[in-house]
Amino acid sequence: MSKRRKRKAKSDLGEFLANSLIIIIAGYFSSIPWLRSLATLLLLAGLMIIVWRLVRYFKITRPLNIYGVDQMSGVEFERFIEHLLKSQGYEVKRIGGYDDFGVDLIASRGGRRHAIQVKRWNQPVTIEAVRAAIAGMSFHNCDRAVVITNSSFTKPAKDLAAGTNCRLIDRNGLAEQIRAANQPKDQTRTTQP
């Protein structure tokens, strides 16, 4: 989504919220029954949205194990990895989308930039994902490509990554990073993506 569309969407949302607030206030001070009903409906809808957003937030940020990752959607997994990297001290920029050139996230720390491709798959990740991450590394001017999955990698994917500047993090590696993130801060060791 372009920046102009995001700004317009935020502007539209702000206008909708302001109008809803006016209707809610007017409805509760009005003697018109349908306006009171509309105000109550808007108030309940607003509360439902707040609860839904809180559930989404805690689903992504709560400490969990690798089996919780298997229950996530692709977008939730991407946001979870973003949160995990931030907890490790990385500055993370979400790229994603149709024209991401094989990169979902760019993580920076210590002057190094990592082009990260995130794959929440049920089958082994293929060589195409590694190729895309390597191409995205070059396109986004990063120092390293990283492919993170809750699954495993095919042999051709491992072979290509071994011959390039691409790190593969499979299910076991991701589980280790989740365990490290769930440890108390004084015991946590910093890991690299």
Please provide a written account of the structure.
- This protein is of the alpha/beta class and 193 residues long.
- It has two domains: 3-61; 66-182, Trna Endonuclease, Chain: A, domain 1.
- 55% of the residues lie in helices and 14% in strands.
- The chain has helices spanning 3-28, 33-61, 66-70, 74-87, 127-139, 155-162, 171-182, and strands at 91-94, 105-109, 112-119, 144-149, 166-169.
- The chain has a five-stranded mixed sheet with strand order 1-2-3-4-5.
- The chain is elongated.
- The two termini are 27 Å apart.
Instruction: Please provide the count of β strands.
Output: 5
Q: What integer value in Å does the Rg equal?
A: 22 Å
User: Mind describing the biggest β-sheet?
Assistant: 5 strands, mixed
Q: How many domains is the backbone divided into?
A: 2
Percentage beta strand: 5-15%
Please specify the SSE layout and strand pairing:
Blueprint: H1 3-28, H2 33-61, H3 66-70, H4 74-87, E1 91-94, E2 105-109, E3 112-119, H5 127-139, E4 144-149, H6 155-162, E5 166-169, H7 171-182
Helix pairs in contact: 1-2, 2-4, 5-6
